[in-house]
Amino acid sequence: MRHLLLAFVVAACTPSASPSDDTDVGTDTDARAVDPAVVVRFPPAPDVVTDQDALTVRGVATPDTVVRIGDHGALAGPDGAWQIVVPLEVGTHDLEVDAVAPSGALTAAVATLSVTRWETLPVDVVDVARDPVRGDVYLADRARGALLRVDRATGTTARVGTSQGAVASLSWDAVGDRLLAVLTAPARLVAYDPDTDTVTTIADAAVGTGPDLDGVAFVVPDPARHRLIAGGPTASDLLIVDPTTGDRVSLVDLARVPRLHGLASASDLVVDAARDRLLAVVDDAVLAVDPTTGAVTTVWSGGHAAVDPMAHGAGWLDADGDVLFTVRHGEAGVSAVDLVTGTRRVVSSGDVGTGPALAAPVGLVADGPDTLLVASAGHRGLVRVDRRSGARTLQTAPRAGAGDPLGEAVALTSELSTGRLWVLGEGGGSVVEVDVAAGTLHAVTRPVPHDPWVALAYDPFRDQLLLAPRTDGIEAVDLATGTPRVLAYARPTSTAGLPTGVGSLSLDPSGARLLMAGMEELYTMNLGTGEFQVASGSRGRGPGTVLRGVAVLDDRVLVLDPGIGQLLEVDLPTGDRSVLSSFTVGEGPTLVGAQGIFPASAGWGVWATTGDQRVIRVDLYRGDRIPIVANDPVALGGRGTPLGVAELVDDPDVILFLDSAQAGIWAHDRVTGEQVMVAK
Q1: What does the alpha-carbon distance between residue 173 and residue 167 come to, in Å, rounded to a whole number?
Q2: Rounded Cα distance, 662 and 678, in Å
Q3: pLDDT digits (tens, 9 = 90+) for 104-136
Q4: What global pTM score does this model have?
């Protein structure tokens, strides 16, 4: 099962010299006369992305082999292990792995690695702004506390200015020829000068007088009046800020604005110079604010009261000033509000336009007369949207030609014997197959409006994926055709007792039954007849407890209870359970909040997404819990921890997991602790 990880680097070497007739076969002399077989174990794919200044390449070879990468080399030890630390400059590097056998023969190009080092990998993109004169595009990275400039030719990003703390939003001040940014914790307004690469404070607790900036999430220039307007969905006032002194006065006291008007929920503000007014973008409305009196009127409203305050840079006015383009964090699309007629239409979404679906859009700017750049939090970067056709293309991605993006991936599964990997992408709306060796993605199913899938398992007997929707039921996707079909739903005319809230699926070794962890029970489903029954649970057989995560190891059924932090073994004939690991059994990090369990080469690994937030391995004999990947916000992608973990090979050194920004697959080297992105 190790072949997926190692296939691209195994060199079939030929002898460099023939042993003499009097040489004993199998002696050291004979072994040393044969060129070495060199294997690269990390990174696990030939094409990787990192933002570190060095990469540790590690593997095994014939003992005493000298392995070289450029000017750097290492001697394989008695156990064949070797590793080389290769310094990296920003850019793409082709690293050729050469080997010198103990016999002295040179084996060139044993493996070739393409390593791209970004100066800064985007982590938590929350807004985008564009310099209309220079054409530069900037991203706000909240997790890194950084302002990032996008290289439009390569799609890579680099940090500008200095670390500023959490960045909430961006806008461009054409009069001052500078980038404006809203920062939080503590709240302040700053300006970035692209000519001097410096950041200065415009207003904070120590600069300027007037109301505080707590809750401010956006700032926009009002060039006609030589002032700035600042506000946000949790701010107490809509503020006028003097760009020179930082002094602040209230334009609108939001406490006095009726909630019905929605201004207190505004997530962005756009200056409508042609009509001398401010346009407030609310979750499901566009409001007009009189810049002198603060009076509020409705331009367009969808009639919904839901509030979505996360899309801070949500609006952009077209060149004619007649159409306001908007995005919402909770929607996967771009809309346009006609300011003349007051109507709204969808410009691009899952049903309009082609290309990668938007994942949690948080801001947009113009990118020419017919295209928009949308900051997509789910993609950790930019997606270009054609305003006429709605077509979408990914602009900032660590990998070129990676195919369909994972979007907001929620789960993954793999088939060890063939090395195949599938991911639930686009918030559970589609299935993507991943070629780990090539780093490419292929959509098995296209996003469709339905009850999102939350769990999946591979059925090798029928070459299909089994999926659990969010509410109830079981569906299947034929991998030959990509066609989803319903196996069973809990409807009055369907199978009674179908579990709801399924969080984990697994097939038993015979392939006859599907094991499902519901909210309180472990269910089995006969894949031939569709019959369901409770195998174990608080309302079923065996000692009562809450059961949620499930997996099968040979003839053992393991169940995870994240609520109380237990890993149990369930006997299917009786439904009885025994505790394998918990607070009182074994030592190590807690299992409370664990997301799921996955096979490892020695014992089982359990991934916790709350509490200790790390990948841990559980010893099934002692119950001990051993940390594998610690909760490093930067190393793990910046927003907590990943949403899914799977081991693809029977190898104790490397694991692959979805990153916390839900935008790629990372490889973690358990020996060195290094992590690189191998698919996006």
Answers
A1: 17
A2: 14
A3: 877 777 888 989 888 887 777 888 999 988 889
A4: 0.70
